[in-house]
Write a structure and sequence with these properties.
seven-stranded mixed sheet; five-stranded parallel sheet; 19 strands; elongated; oxidoreductase; flavin adenine dinucleotide binding; flavoprotein; oxidoreductase activity, acting on a sulfur group of donors, NAD(P) as acceptor; NADH-dependent peroxiredoxin activity
Length: 310
């Protein structure tokens, strides 16, 4: 059995494994795909002290750093079920999709999240070629250009306000008859003169030319009329889905499916910690996930020294 078992090999999981291993305790990390969302990212410009890197390069660096320590890396292993210890300080069990199971005195859940996609033609084809999901990350790439934000919830309207200060023009497209973001955000958005708001708009296709996004088609759901908008970028803001379906019923989750953690990364189960995009911690970013993963490992270590082996 491990003293610390990390589930997930993104920035949060990598940081947790390094911090745990540096305490000299037996550490394992099981990940469906080492690297997580970073593996799907192009340029990264906001990892403090690294002015520019690229996703695959950062994944290689994270893996190399983890390998500096005695960490048992189990890549391509999907966790399917968590069976909490019968009593505090006992062994938790994680069942894997391959039929195996792992036991550990503490578990750190860092299974991350995925952006909800529109599922329209062109979205996948032009991903990272104009189709983006993270305004904090990719907003500056569209300086002075025209973009659309899909979604009029809090994240969509926040993204539109944020982008309006960087890009030339923002078209916000909301599927419903009205935006559902907080009124104070909607008011702010309406006050901006380079933003157009379209409600009852259903995006039907992302259109491209020469390998890049060149426009977007949408249907007005009240009239049925088809429209085309010329632009260079599309930010999809229709939700972030945490990879926590496998934990439902076993651990306390928020209404959005995020693992509820306190400021010590403790979950509702003693000895089970969580970090990164899969949790209720706001602002889903690499540097934040790394910090949270480190915190979770320190909390796990603290738990271990207080609950010595039976
Ligand atoms: P993830 O990176 O999502 O990693 C989750 C890990 O858990 C993966 O290894 C996954 O395979 C594994 N996993 C999931 N389910 C299971 C399971 N059941 N069993 C076992 N393993 C499982 N942030 C920035 O700071 N700067 C950027 O420039 C930036 N650009 C981005 C661009 C794109 C296209 C995307 C999608 C995200 C971007 N982000 C960026 C956000 C950033 O990638 C995330 O905040 C960060 O990766 C979250 O780290 P994490 O470790 O919590 O989760």
């Amino acid at each position: 059995a491990f003293e610390v078992l990390v589930i997930g090999g993104g920035p949060a999981g990598s940081a947790a494994a390094i911090y745990a291993a540096r305490k000299g305790i037996s550490t394992g990390i099981a990940a469906e795909r080492f690297g997580g969302q970073v593996a799907d990212t192009m340029g990264i410009e906001n990892l403090i002290s690294v002015p520019y890197t690229e996703g695959p390069k950062l994944v290689a660096a994270m893996e190399q750093h983890v390998n500096e320590y005695e960490v048992d890396i189990m890549n391509m292993q999907r966790a399917e079920k968590l069976i909490p210890a019968a009593q505090t300080g006992g062994l938790h069990e994680v069942k894997l999709a391959n039929g195996g199971s792992l036991k550990a005195r503490t578990v750190i859940l860092s299974t991350g999240a995925r952006w909800r996609q529109m599922g329209v033609p062109g979205e996948e084809e032009y991903r990272n070629k104009g189709v983006a999901y993270c305004p904090h990350c990719d907003g500056p790439l569209f300086k002075g250009k025209r973009v659309a934000v899909i979604g009029g919830g809090n994240s969509g309207v926040e993204a539109a306000i944020d982008l309006a200060g960087i890009v030339g023009h923002v078209t916000l497209i909301e599927f419903g008859e009205q935006m559902c973001a907080d009124e104070v955000l909607q008011k702010k958005l309406r006050s901006l003169n380079n933003v157009k708001i379209i409600t009852s708009g259903q995006t039907t296709e992302v259109v491209g030319k020469d390998g890049k996004v060149s426009g977007l088609n949408y249907t007005d759901r009240t009239t049925g009329e088809a429209h085309h908008v010329e632009l260079e970028g599309v930010f999809v803001q229709i939700g972030l889905v945490p990879n926590t379906e496998w934990l439902k019923g076993d651990i306390e989750l928020s209404q959005h499916g995020e693992i509820i953690v306190n400021d010590r990364n403790e979950t509702s189960i003693p000895g089970v910690f969580a970090a990164g995009d899969a949790t209720t911690v706001p602002y889903k970013q690499i540097v934040i996930s790394m910090g949270e993963g480190s915190k979770a490992a320190l909390s796990a270590f603290d738990f271990l020294i207080r609950n010595s082996a039976e």
